[in-house]
Amino acid sequence: MAPPTTLLDLPDDVLIMLPSYLRNIEDYVSFASTCQRLRHASRSTSSNIVLRLAAAQSSTFFRPSPHFLVAATARDLGQWARLSKTNEELLALKCQDGVQGLLDLALQHCGLTMMRIRELHQMRFDLINPAIDLVDKCVGPQWVSTPGFWDGEVDDAYTIHADPPETLLHLVIYGELFAPDFDAFLAGVGIRTISVDTRLEFVKYCVPDFACECADPELSISDPRRAVKAVGPYAPSETHHRYRGDNHNLALTWVIRSTRWKPHWKSLRAMAGPDFQDDFDDQWWYDAADDQDWRQRMWECVMICQGFGTLQMLRPHLRQSWVPTITQWRDQIRRLPREPVTVMVGRQATLQYPYLLGDLRICVSGYVAGT
User: Which of 1, 142, 297, 344 has a CA that sits 20 to 30 A from residue 41's CA?
Assistant: First the structure.
């Protein structure tokens, strides 16, 4: 038998192995579009290999990098972490390497398909870019450029250095990772939930902020979960010993509490039923004894912690399709006999269910901020 002289002379069981030797996703697309036989071979490529090839060009086709690909794989990564305590511990450990650490972990345990990549590409125009524009108006350059910014024309003026695309994807990643836990609290689904401790590791290192690093050190002594190690985004460099990046934590907190953000959710909730409390204001400092209605807090939180689903709720042509689900959440919350357990971390508190604002506040507790 004569040896193969061209690529197409190779047997099928060899052709299907070739994508694992390609450099990046661009090479893979070229490979799959060369001819019908290679296109057929490409269909056997594992989703993990496709993710690896995409990661090789994340700064070209999947910006901001690595946030975009982490958002795309976070749902699967969270489900993997729920499989065992060991998996969750590894997730918490990789969080200390920042968002890049989550992508490194996803490259080991998750994948992407070309169909999903095409969906993500379309979502960038339909969902992500419009939502980034809203975030920009809440904490970005559009917000800061408001005339009379420091003279009372902006009700929450503050010095925040934010990157709107990354701020938005921090919200999406948190939701994709932790949203499934709501099923345990609202529907009584018997699933293993991700712990508050792991959520705090995510917020500290994957939503980094100098306010996390500079918070009162006494709080870290009283509760080690508040401590921030000099690793990942906080690792000292040759030129700086402290974190010098954007205010990711404060930016996300300001978005959630912004008067430009809240009306979108109030109008959507009105389509599903009346609020539990009309004048609800989730304060900077959580107090379990205050007069806020915990049901309202939970209803608002579950809506903004749905990852890419949250972005769908922001789009006028898609929000109607979410009304039945939002109504169901409201009914489930109304039937709960009591608020889920409060978890104290030092002198501050969050809740057992994914409570983003509470988790953010804990990680900057001791740093003076307010709106």
Answer: 1
